[in-house]
Amino acid sequence: MVVCDGLTGLPDAVTTVWPRTVVQTCIVHLLRNSFRYAGRQHWDAIAKALKPVYTAPTEAAAKERFAEFADAWGARYPAIVRLWDNAWAEFVPFLAFDVEIRRVICSTNAIESVNARIRRAVKARGHFPNEQAALKCVYLAVMSLDPTGTGRKRWMMWWKPALNAFEIAFDGRLAAGRK
Protein backbone atom coordinates (compact mmCIF):
# COMPACT_ATOMS: atom_id res chain seq x y z
CA MET A 1 0.00 0.00 0.00
CA VAL A 2 1.22 3.46 -0.93
CA VAL A 3 -0.44 6.72 0.10
CA CYS A 4 0.47 9.45 -2.40
CA ASP A 5 0.01 13.18 -2.16
CA GLY A 6 -0.46 13.86 -5.85
CA LEU A 7 3.07 13.50 -7.17
CA THR A 8 2.78 12.88 -10.90
CA GLY A 9 4.13 9.52 -11.97
CA LEU A 10 4.62 8.09 -8.46
CA PRO A 11 1.64 5.70 -8.62
CA ASP A 12 2.79 4.39 -12.02
CA ALA A 13 6.36 3.93 -10.80
CA VAL A 14 5.26 2.07 -7.69
CA THR A 15 2.87 -0.25 -9.52
CA THR A 16 5.55 -0.98 -12.13
CA VAL A 17 7.94 -2.21 -9.44
CA TRP A 18 5.30 -3.79 -7.17
CA PRO A 19 2.27 -4.77 -9.30
CA ARG A 20 0.08 -5.85 -6.35
CA THR A 21 0.42 -2.46 -4.62
CA VAL A 22 -2.72 -0.58 -3.69
CA VAL A 23 -2.20 3.10 -4.50
CA GLN A 24 -4.23 5.51 -2.38
CA THR A 25 -4.42 9.27 -2.58
CA CYS A 26 -3.95 11.23 0.62
CA ILE A 27 -7.39 12.35 1.77
CA VAL A 28 -6.00 15.37 3.62
CA HIS A 29 -4.17 16.56 0.49
CA LEU A 30 -7.33 16.05 -1.55
CA LEU A 31 -9.25 18.23 0.92
CA ARG A 32 -6.51 20.89 0.95
CA ASN A 33 -6.51 20.96 -2.83
CA SER A 34 -10.30 21.39 -2.73
CA PHE A 35 -9.94 24.44 -0.50
CA ARG A 36 -7.55 25.97 -3.02
CA TYR A 37 -10.55 26.55 -5.33
CA ALA A 38 -12.94 27.83 -2.67
CA GLY A 39 -13.32 31.11 -0.85
CA ARG A 40 -12.12 31.06 2.76
CA GLN A 41 -15.63 31.81 4.02
CA HIS A 42 -16.84 28.48 2.55
CA TRP A 43 -14.05 26.17 3.78
CA ASP A 44 -15.95 24.95 6.84
CA ALA A 45 -19.13 24.25 4.88
CA ILE A 46 -17.21 22.45 2.12
CA ALA A 47 -15.30 20.35 4.65
CA LYS A 48 -18.58 19.44 6.33
CA ALA A 49 -20.17 18.56 2.98
CA LEU A 50 -17.20 16.40 1.89
CA LYS A 51 -16.87 14.48 5.16
CA PRO A 52 -19.74 12.08 4.33
CA VAL A 53 -17.93 11.27 1.07
CA TYR A 54 -14.67 10.08 2.60
CA THR A 55 -16.31 8.52 5.67
CA ALA A 56 -18.86 6.56 3.62
CA PRO A 57 -18.92 2.82 4.33
CA THR A 58 -18.88 1.81 0.65
CA GLU A 59 -18.00 3.21 -2.75
CA ALA A 60 -21.69 3.35 -3.74
CA ALA A 61 -22.53 5.37 -0.63
CA ALA A 62 -19.57 7.67 -1.31
CA LYS A 63 -20.80 8.22 -4.88
CA GLU A 64 -24.23 9.18 -3.55
CA ARG A 65 -22.72 11.60 -1.01
CA PHE A 66 -20.48 13.05 -3.72
CA ALA A 67 -23.49 13.57 -6.00
CA GLU A 68 -25.16 15.47 -3.14
CA PHE A 69 -21.99 17.55 -2.73
CA ALA A 70 -21.86 18.22 -6.48
CA ASP A 71 -25.52 19.33 -6.48
CA ALA A 72 -24.95 21.68 -3.55
CA TRP A 73 -21.54 23.11 -4.49
CA GLY A 74 -20.93 22.19 -8.14
CA ALA A 75 -22.44 25.35 -9.59
CA ARG A 76 -20.34 27.60 -7.36
CA TYR A 77 -17.10 25.55 -7.38
CA PRO A 78 -17.01 23.25 -10.42
CA ALA A 79 -13.23 22.89 -10.11
CA ILE A 80 -13.65 21.06 -6.79
CA VAL A 81 -16.08 18.61 -8.38
CA ARG A 82 -13.67 18.05 -11.27
CA LEU A 83 -10.77 17.58 -8.82
CA TRP A 84 -12.62 14.81 -6.96
CA ASP A 85 -13.81 13.24 -10.23
CA ASN A 86 -10.23 13.11 -11.52
CA ALA A 87 -8.92 11.69 -8.23
CA TRP A 88 -11.76 9.21 -7.75
CA ALA A 89 -9.80 6.17 -8.98
CA GLU A 90 -7.05 6.83 -6.42
CA PHE A 91 -9.58 7.73 -3.71
CA VAL A 92 -11.79 4.63 -4.00
CA PRO A 93 -9.31 2.05 -2.56
CA PHE A 94 -9.59 3.90 0.74
CA LEU A 95 -13.26 2.95 1.01
CA ALA A 96 -12.57 -0.79 0.76
CA PHE A 97 -10.59 -0.81 4.01
CA ASP A 98 -11.61 -1.27 7.61
CA VAL A 99 -12.07 1.86 9.74
CA GLU A 100 -8.81 1.11 11.61
CA ILE A 101 -6.85 1.12 8.36
CA ARG A 102 -8.59 4.27 7.16
CA ARG A 103 -7.48 6.07 10.31
CA VAL A 104 -3.85 5.23 9.54
CA ILE A 105 -3.75 5.83 5.77
CA CYS A 106 -5.95 8.89 5.36
CA SER A 107 -2.95 11.21 5.42
CA THR A 108 0.72 11.42 4.53
CA ASN A 109 1.25 14.08 7.23
CA ALA A 110 3.09 11.76 9.65
CA ILE A 111 5.74 10.75 7.12
CA GLU A 112 6.03 14.33 5.90
CA SER A 113 6.68 15.41 9.48
CA VAL A 114 9.47 12.84 9.86
CA ASN A 115 10.95 13.89 6.51
CA ALA A 116 10.91 17.55 7.56
CA ARG A 117 12.72 16.70 10.81
CA ILE A 118 15.37 14.72 8.91
CA ARG A 119 15.77 17.51 6.33
CA ARG A 120 16.22 20.07 9.12
CA ALA A 121 18.90 17.94 10.83
CA VAL A 122 20.79 17.30 7.59
CA LYS A 123 20.63 20.96 6.58
CA ALA A 124 21.97 22.07 9.97
CA ARG A 125 24.91 19.66 9.65
CA GLY A 126 25.81 20.74 6.13
CA HIS A 127 28.06 17.90 4.94
CA PHE A 128 29.09 14.44 6.02
CA PRO A 129 32.54 12.87 5.83
CA ASN A 130 31.07 9.43 5.09
CA GLU A 131 27.85 7.47 4.80
CA GLN A 132 28.03 6.32 8.42
CA ALA A 133 27.96 9.93 9.62
CA ALA A 134 24.89 10.66 7.46
CA LEU A 135 23.08 7.58 8.78
CA LYS A 136 23.90 8.60 12.35
CA CYS A 137 22.44 12.07 11.74
CA VAL A 138 19.24 10.55 10.33
CA TYR A 139 19.02 8.09 13.23
CA LEU A 140 19.41 10.85 15.82
CA ALA A 141 16.80 12.99 14.06
CA VAL A 142 14.28 10.13 14.11
CA MET A 143 15.05 9.26 17.73
CA SER A 144 14.57 12.91 18.74
CA LEU A 145 10.91 12.62 17.70
CA ASP A 146 10.29 10.69 20.94
CA PRO A 147 13.29 11.30 23.21
CA THR A 148 11.76 9.72 26.34
CA GLY A 149 10.31 6.69 24.57
CA THR A 150 6.90 7.14 26.19
CA GLY A 151 5.18 7.91 22.89
CA ARG A 152 6.17 4.49 21.57
CA LYS A 153 3.69 2.81 23.93
CA ARG A 154 0.86 5.02 22.66
CA TRP A 155 1.84 4.40 19.05
CA MET A 156 1.87 0.65 19.59
CA MET A 157 -1.60 0.73 21.15
CA TRP A 158 -2.85 2.87 18.27
CA TRP A 159 -1.27 0.67 15.60
CA LYS A 160 -2.35 -2.76 16.90
CA PRO A 161 -5.95 -2.57 15.60
CA ALA A 162 -4.67 -1.26 12.24
CA LEU A 163 -2.03 -3.99 12.06
CA ASN A 164 -4.70 -6.64 12.63
CA ALA A 165 -6.89 -5.09 9.93
CA PHE A 166 -3.91 -4.91 7.51
CA GLU A 167 -3.16 -8.59 8.13
CA ILE A 168 -6.75 -9.54 7.23
CA ALA A 169 -7.00 -7.16 4.26
CA PHE A 170 -3.69 -8.23 2.73
CA ASP A 171 -4.19 -11.93 3.49
CA GLY A 172 -0.90 -12.73 5.19
CA ARG A 173 1.34 -10.60 2.95
CA LEU A 174 2.62 -8.70 6.00
CA ALA A 175 3.82 -11.83 7.78
CA ALA A 176 5.50 -13.05 4.58
CA GLY A 177 7.60 -9.88 4.47
CA ARG A 178 9.01 -10.43 7.98
CA LYS A 179 10.45 -13.88 7.32
Please give a quick description of this structure.
The chain folds into two domains: 2-105, no CATH class; 109-178, no CATH class. The chain is 68% helix and 3% strand.
* Rg for CA atoms: 19 Å
- Name the strands of the widest sheet in spatial order: 1-2
> Helical region count?
10
Topology pattern, helix = H, strand = E: EHEHHHHHHHHH
Unreliable stretches covering 5 or more consecutive residues: none
Quaternary structure type? single chain
> What structural class do the secondary elements suggest?
mainly alpha
User: Mean of the pLDDT scores?
Assistant: 82
Q: Please tell me what the overall shape is.
A: globular
Report the major sheet. 2 strands, parallel
Q: Percent of residues in beta strands?
A: under 5%
Percent helix: 55-70%
Q: How far apart lie the N and C ends?
A: 19 Å
Find the count of extended strands (DSSP E, 2+ residues).
Answer: 2
Domains counted in the coordinates: how many?
2
InterPro entries: Transposase_mutator (IPR001207)
Function: Required for the transposition of the insertion element.
Pfam family, one: Transposase_mut
Organism: Saccharothrix coeruleofusca
